[in-house]
Fold this protein.
Amino acid sequence: MQDTDMSISDKQDTNLPAALSVGGLDPSGGAGVLADVVTFRAMRVMAAAAVTSITIQNPSGVLGRKDLEPDIIRQQLLALFSEMDFKAVKIGMIGTRRAAEVVAEVFKGEGGIPLVLDPVLRSGTGQSLSNSDLVSVMIDSLVPMATLVTPNINEAEELCGIEVKGPDSMETAARMIVGMGARAALVTGGIDRPKRVVDVFYDGEVIEYFSELRLPVERVHGTGCMLSSVVAGGLAWGWSLERAVTEARKLVRKSMVEAVRVGDGDPVAYLGNPVPGAGLEMDAGEEMGEYREKLWAWTTNLMSEEK
């Protein structure tokens, strides 16, 4: 598929693609479906969300969760698909085995939509966000439908049943995930603590290692969710998978530098954060359409910048 340019000259709302996020609700807005919706909107993608679990958390950690009944999840999905034409779907936190079965069942009836699976099993600070029997259903039912699976190294260990501790084992895990039926896998190493960050991409033919110096920033909440939702947003626009992955990695790094701290907790990744002094404030007398165009030009520029 040819990449589709997102042009500000073609900005009628009826022409915007739509993307769906399926996952948990993080009340702090730093992760989960709230963060995905913000990311989609920053990419000028119309956003919808189906909630699987309500978490009790703030930017520094998860204190608890309440998984929704599978039938409630089913009803949300069926209602959305009955009227909305989604160009991409991002699946994050599922929570339970039965919820995963319901999500897989609904999506089998909606075949052909690009699907990004972020297999959220634990929070970035280590708290469990899933039941112990979820992984087998994820492997059997969701991974084979995925255009891309984006586990961090801990999630790759749980999916693959191997120790993942460096680039070689990350490649092994990526190959195993594609062997489970996924079109491609991106195993991310950002939660490890070496001086360089290594991510490994495999699409069944090509292995690509992304290696960059670790940014001199503290832990940032929501980067994993942002990575997968930017990929999904790009796929909704018709980008190739390779372009979507490349742009997502650039934007996540940008968001880490410009992360927002609200109060005393960890800073939160935020795509399209208007930084004071960056010329993104609304000028006196400026029309809203002009302001939106300026914001979008800034976001587009980010996507075209070199690493």
